[in-house]
Amino acid sequence: MARRKIVAGNWKMNMTPSQAVELCATLKDLVVSDEVDVVYCVPAIDIIPVVEAVKGTNVAVGAENMYFEAKGAYTGEISAEMLVDAGVKYVIIGHSERRDYFKECDCLLNKKVKKALEAGLVPILCCGESLEQREMGVTMDWIRLQIKSDLVGVTADQVKGMVIAYEPIWAIGTGKTATTEQAEEVCKGIRECIAEMYDTDTAEAVRIQYGGSVSASNAAELFAQPNIDGGLVGGASLKADFGKIVNYK
Ligand code: PEP
């Protein structure tokens, strides 16, 4: 069965609650699609107004992060249960900005993935290599290590419902997109890794996005690749262009 494409915006630390509601209104008609799942991953403070703003539309809401504990003395953190109760469906886990600036390691990310799944959220698990790693020729080794570590204890059925986002760090927010061949090669490698870890059915079911300077002009070529099931979009998700990315055909 063909995998359904999924295009998710990662708003990062942008949009105050009132700006968020305005952006939802601007994008409302532009992101309508029967063929693509559309997600806005928004800052925690924007979740409640955005859930309200997209009610009755084809847009689902995602969080950009969560903590793995259910509740308690974790000042500043947000639990999976809180996200679910607020109407969130997806959660980005392991974005390179969180791995890098907030020192999130694979051991922590594995706990987050398991907790998100247990709570009924769809994790959008990010992985990707640095420019140095690409130049050293260890891209796929690094990504396989990330995927294997982050999925320890996750069942095949759970993986089937997940999203994995391949995001080369050197392509995020830089305007430097990976070539279509580079993006497809790694997404295919991720699928092969899932097949080895689980089985072919699981590998064929999991959705794998490309992220890194996706734009209205490169989305069609990227998303046409056999192993690329859509995109995780940063900068271009904050403007009307996001509608063109969703309706990339
Ligand atoms: C991202 O933040 O996940 C991302 C891919 O950003 P950008 O599209 O701006 O490169």
Please describe the topology of this protein.
Elements: E1 5-10, H1 17-27, E2 36-42, H2 47-53, E3 59-63, H3 80-86, E4 90-93, H4 96-101, H5 106-119, E5 122-127, H6 131-136, H7 139-150, H8 156-160, E6 163-166, H9 180-197, H10 200-205, E7 207-211, H11 219-223, E8 230-233, H12 241-246
Parallel strand pairs: 1-2, 1-8, 2-3, 3-4, 4-5, 5-6, 6-7, 7-8
Helix pairs in contact: 1-2, 7-9
The structure holds phosphoenolpyruvate.
Residues 10, 12, 167, 172-173, 211-214, 232-236 line the site of phosphoenolpyruvate.
Tell me what the structure shows.
The structure is a single chain. The protein is α/β, with parallel strands linked by helices. It has one domain (about 5-245): Aldolase class I (TIM Barrel), CATH 3.20.20.70. The chain has helices at about 15-25, 45-55, 80-85, 95-100, 105-120, 130-135, 140-150, 155-160, 180-195, 200-205, 220-225, 240-245; strands at about 5-10, 35-40, 60-65, 90-95, 120-125, 165, 205-210, 230-235. It has an 8-stranded parallel barrel with strand order 1-2-3-4-5-6-7-8, surrounded by 4 helices. Helix 1 (about 15-25) packs parallel to helix 2 (about 45-55) and helix 7 (about 140-150) packs across helix 9 (about 180-195). The longest helix has 18 residues, at about 180-195. It is globular. The protein starts with a strand and ends with a helix. The mean pLDDT is about 95. The structure holds phosphoenolpyruvate.
